């Protein structure tokens, strides 16, 4: 009887160590970059230059919506999966550029699983989402630093 009880407790505790799903709000990164007095066109040129330097293989589209210029594209980062394997992660980046500010949204995180990295599945595990979040926040911070230090004029 004791061994059955011990086995049952072991099964319960083993179940507690399974992966935790990430809340939906943790599956995107948003950032606001404020550059008071800087024109939308100046911000657009600097942002696109930064994108070409930091994400050279990414593909982006550009469109104007009233007073907002929207840059949308895809990028790729990676995270450490089980057994230390690096897993590529594709994401969508949307940048809304207006006079004096930019809003960034990184979402649609898709891990490229499998031995050949050819099995796309959304990131749902919080352990992996936390790694992706940290890398995308660092990317947003890098853009902010670039815009504020690049001599963007008013």
Question: How would you describe this protein?
Answer:
This protein has 154 residues and is an alpha+beta fold. Strands 1, 2, 3, 4, 5 and 6 form a six-stranded antiparallel sheet that branches. The chain has helices spanning 2-16, 40-54, 126-149, and strands spanning 29-34, 59-65, 68-80, 86-98, 101-113, 119-122. The protein has three helices and six strands; from the N terminus they run αβαβββββα. It has a single domain, classed as Alpha-D-Glucose-1,6-Bisphosphate, Chain A, domain 4, CATH 3.30.530.
Please summarize what this structure is:
The chain is α+β, with helices and mostly antiparallel strands and 154 residues long. The protein is built from three helices and six strands; from the N terminus they run αβαβββββα. It has helices spanning 2-16, 40-54, 126-149; strands at 29-34, 59-65, 68-80, 86-98, 101-113, 119-122.
